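Translate structure to sequence.
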């Protein structure tokens, strides 16, 4: 059939609630400060880019931020959702344009995309110095609360209309994607909001189930 399918990553393609959480645990970030940064973002005191920068600062040890190799090491042991590889293979064979749109980390999203066969990746990243260490600056591409902004970029760049797009997500943060999609699927939903706004709801944790609602 063709068209486009946009996937959230954490909880949809991989067994993970949050790639940010993985990094915070790996680098032993101060939990009190993490919660305060989160509160400030959701109360609109800071934007998403500043939230990224302030969270990254919590990983500093002895005046030095982590090396990119440590970021990779913290994230590389991801586990795919059942059926993910098989599902993506079938969709690629049917000429769908596939996308990952995640407010998580691009290093992980790129590894996941390579593993399953999705080339179009939108996720957040970091800047590094000449030796490969984080320099404290962010590469802010996807706002947790405004995935619709990325959807608009995708629609413009790939000349897509709303009815050309299917979106698959698991939380209220994916609802802005749903609003710009002709068909929306809540996969293993984590909250009532995403269930309410989805066209279809799948509670079984096997990504092959989305094929029940897609014309191939």
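Result:
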């Amino acid at each position: 059939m063709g068209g486009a399918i946009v996937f959230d990553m954490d909880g949809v393609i991989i067994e993970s609630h949050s790639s940010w959480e993985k990094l915070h645990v790996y680098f032993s970030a101060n939990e009190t400060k993490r919660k305060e940064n989160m509160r400030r973002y959701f109360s609109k005191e800071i934007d998403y880019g500043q939230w990224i920068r302030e969270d990254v600062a919590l990983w500093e040890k002895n005046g030095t931020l982590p090396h990119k190799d440590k970021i990779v090491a913290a994230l590389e042991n991801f586990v795919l959702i059942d059926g993910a590889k098989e599902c993506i293979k079938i969709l690629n064979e049917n000429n769908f344009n596939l996308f990952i749109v995640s407010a998580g980390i691009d290093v992980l999203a790129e590894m996941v995309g390579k593993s399953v066969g999705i080339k179009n990746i939108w996720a957040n990243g970091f800047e590094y110095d000449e030796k490969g260490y984080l320099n404290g600056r962010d590469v802010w591409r996807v706002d947790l609360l405004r995935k619709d902004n990325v959807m608009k970029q995708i629609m413009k760049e790939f000349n897509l209309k709303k009815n050309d797009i299917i979106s698959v997500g698991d939380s209220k943060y994916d609802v802005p994607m749903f609003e710009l999609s002709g068909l929306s699927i809540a996969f293993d939903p984590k909250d009532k909001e995403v269930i309410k706004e989805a066209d279809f709801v799948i509670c079984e944790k096997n990504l092959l189930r989305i094929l029940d609602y897609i014309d191939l």
